[in-house]
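Predict the assembly for these two chains.
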Amino acid sequence: MRILLTFPRFYLALVMALAGLPALLQMPAVPLTLSGMGVLTGWLGCGALAASLMLMVREPAIASCFGGLDRMYRWHHLFGVAGYVLLLSHPLFLAGQALPAHPQSAWQIISPGSPTWSGMLGWGALLGLMLGLGATFATRLRYSVWRPLHALLSVGVLLGIAHVLLLGGLTAAAWVVMLPIVLALTWRMLRVDRGQGARPYEVSSASCLSDEIVEVSLRPLAQPLAAVPGQFVMAAFFEGPHYRGCGEYHPYTISGAIPDGGLRLNIKALGDCTRTMQSLEAGVAARIQGPFGEFFASRNASPEVWIAGGIGVTPFLAQLRLGEVTRPTEFIYVYRTAQDACYLDEMERYAATHPLLHFQPLVSQNDLVPLYAMLAKVTDLPARQAYLCGPRLFVAAVSAWLKQHGMREQSIHFENFEFRS
Amino acid sequence: MKRIYIVATLLFWLGVTAIWAGSHWMPATQEVAALSPTKAYSLQAVAAHNRADNCWMAINGQVYDLSAYIPQHPSAPEVIVAWCGKEATTAYMTKNRGRPHSPYATELLQRYRIGVLDMR
């Protein structure tokens, strides 16, 4: 049992069981007809949404069970979309049963103008999910607009619970759906969104590395997080002597540790909030949650190749600052233009003092062909462990190239920098 | 994921539109209401129709032939079939821990009315 607890698949199986349980409980009472299918897809959809919401609880210990926050969120999205598709099919199946013999009845079952509370709640739930999920994919929206739209998902879920309770009462299946949803939403709201699970810090210094990147040093005001450089944290910045923060939690990679539990973070301007942070100053209050990330968690003695894209250099910088290069390491740092490069001098210094480290900076101009040419020259590439960090498309393209050139999938470790800076 | 979302959402609205169109242009194949709604049936006559494929019920003094509706009922068939051939007002009014059926269900029920219950 203790061994099982170390496998992400074990926890995933538990979540899948939870997702299927409401439908399983209802199964004996459901007829084998289209309307029966409608009932089952409704319960399966509710179960999938409950599972998705449980995977939204951003706690380091829970994320670690699923192999890291990135992986946990991937399952959160997968369960969410599966639940959405099942719930969309639910009224169609119910109406489909009546359609051949009673087309008017079929329309009454599905009509948005339904005069019944259950019908109105059902439609409210579906529209909330539709708009909320649509906003999730509209990543170009301003964060201040995106966030309330995304929150419509929670409204949709709560209306869905009301729909279920109104139609069937407090059955065992309803409890199985409702409890995890209410727990997950409450936990998320209090611990994550209101920051009760975060620790207080204060900015001790901030230095601009380029027009769009600032490195911030933070000192703890209470017990510090047990964070390792290279992991990432969720951080929100508030008020300072001349600074007014947006107070939103965003993920940032730890670029280094400072004595007494302090942390250094790299922040790239990707939106309104992170652009404001470029003017962070000493004395600004911050709250930090984490740490997250398993990027360097499973290293062995094999030679390595590190490939950083843009701000994705941060976890590698953190490793170098720890002074740990104990195996032959080829480090390629790719950036768009010379102005985008950070820490070049520092990394050149590490390369000069670490005989096992071979560092190559590369201006890409959005062309990865020179990178592939460099990789093709790396000695015994398929036998190395590859560590990739950068924007999602960059990581996907380089991973694909590495696989095509003989590297096994389990030797490729990566982290994306989608919302992280 | 985004593609799945877009395709599923489009298919859903397509389905809703198709059902709306069907309700306007497809003829109903069963005209239950063609039977005289004022004909009186005794409880004994109702009791003879006590099977899933021949199911009458007396509810609130009215008699309904629910044979065509049984497969559409969302709960397990035995839940509703148990009331075929019987006076089912209490069952109708107390589903789900004492709550009656919805106004929509009451409206739907009228389509299956075949007469009134002879109380004599």
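The interface with chain A takes residues 1-2, 4-5, 8-9, 11-12, 15-16, 19-20, 22-23, 26-30, 68, 71-77, 79, 96-97, 99, 102-104, 107-108, 111 of chain B (CB under 8 Å). The mean pLDDT of chain B is 79.
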